[in-house]
Amino acid sequence: MSVFIGGAWPYANGSLHLGHIAALLPGDILARYYRLKGEKVLYASGSDCNGTPISIRANAEGVSVKEIADRYHTEFIVCFSRLGFSYDIYTRTDGRFHHQVVRNVFLTLLDRGFIFKKEVEQTYCEFDERFLPDRFVEGVCPYCGSRARGDQCDNCGSILDPLDLTERTCKLCGNEPTVRKTEHFYFKLSAFQDELDKYVASASAEGRWRDNAIHQSERYLREGLRDRAASRDLANGVGIPVRGYEDKKVYVWIEAVTGYYSASQEWAALNRVDFEEFWNEETVSYYVHGKD
Ligand SMILES: [Zn+2]
Ligand SMILES: [Zn+2]
What we know:
The protein is α/β, with parallel strands linked by helices. The chain is 38% helix and 22% strand.
């Protein structure tokens, strides 16, 4: 049997603390358990080197994004090796290999109609002269009334769009952003409503998932799955592989998750393993994130 174990990807914008290690340890234990049983194991993870928080840190220190990513990626590797972690591959999301795999996945989804282009309204800061990433917009959550970021409300757990917020401010300068039209790519999540209804119902019936995972998933399904943005205006990340849109980046929720797949392929290439033989319909895969 092949067993794939994906550990959480630490974000390369700061040092790890004990809480991170506690969250990463269960994956390592699982990997050792299956190796002892004689199974073929691939335990994979890497540093998340894309996205907004790294840009913020790089700006604050006046250095490049790559310098920040290099610094913490190296520190993580030293840390893991001194603690005896047993990753089969520990890679990073700013590598050429990962970028290529993400672009291929994006183009396949586009080709099959699961990603489509749409004109949308987006928050723009006239003062900073830029479209604002979701996390750079703050305001009042329409569901619970507390102060929230443009991507989600930490108080009530709602997934938000910056335009859902009232009393919006730009996190960079504190001014109120305006709204401008722009084009973005969207993932047709709504097309998977029936399939995911059945999938979550069977996971629930078989008791394979934790209660909180079931409840959260059921809530999203009950509210009706909404198509989600697949591109973002960001400084660093995987560029959209469509002519005229190269400046936009693949949204991290698709890009980082694809890391499990790209890391597996990278591992296969580095170790001359037949990828299809390792990862097929019988492969069992675990995604270990924190205590859940
Ligand atoms: Zn809220
Ligand atoms: Zn601003």
